[in-house]
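Input sequence (313 aa), recorded before submission:
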Amino acid sequence: MLLIDKGHNTGHPPLVATIGFFDGVHIGHRFLINQVKREAELRNLPAAVITFPIHPRKVLQKDYQPALLCGYDEKITRLKSTGIDYCICLDFTVEISKLSAQEYMKNILKDKLHVNTLVIGYDHRFGYNREDGFEDYKRYGEEIGINVVKAAELTGHGHVSSSRIRRLLGEGQIRSAASLLSYNYTISGKIVEGFKVGRTIGFPTANIQIWETYKVIPAFGVYAVYVHVDNQQYDGMLYIGRRPTLHNGDNISIEVNLFDFDGDLYNKELTAEFLDFIRPDEKFPDVETLKEHIRRDKDRVKDVIQRYKLLNP
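Predicted structure, token format:
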């Protein structure tokens, strides 16, 4: 895949393209991109995705904090995995937001990005106030010289959207989210010094400071995870919550206990890959009860990971 950053390099051939933010690059996005690739093959042209490095609403509303399934770098990596030929990252600006759909197609897609054929998602709208529909885009395309094709809708999974996946993660429905993403959800960050309570109760944990503050954080509770650090993968148990038994106040902790690991993680970068939800966060009457539940959690996590490995060798 050739990445064209912000559309500055216009020395590429005519393209068959689609447009979108593509948060998460989920199965609906992949279904659309596969249609772009098929259309490109029929026309003997390269296939392209046009996306934006920053959420368009963030550009228009400075105080808007999007909750995203993946950051820019992760999105580009996942788009690359689709086998698309080109990924064009276009700066969305206030000026672009004021263009009508016809102006956008002529000034940006045709003149700047050399789009020959535009494949439009079945429910996608663009242009000022998103007031036009597919038949309008098709008519503008005929006037401008862009073939406009309406993509088919993915069926058999209900309505697949990034917002639905965010909701599933917020409910702790990790496996359902993974089935719609086509991969396991991850969060990444730096290991920072924590309260060091875990080691005193027999479960030393690494406290994760998330790099991407806009990333969706799954529901409070305990999870079975793979932990990726220093190019190694470890089984682990991850906790998200306010540690109510330890009177942590309103601070949200994200901490992970690595199995079969002996070493110093402080200041290292780590990625947690969510495999399954074990239980919701809970306040226990005392630390001893908490320790007993964590022991049970660990046994359950090990069973879940073992089953996961059998199903995903």
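Checked by second reader. The chain has a mean pLDDT of 90.
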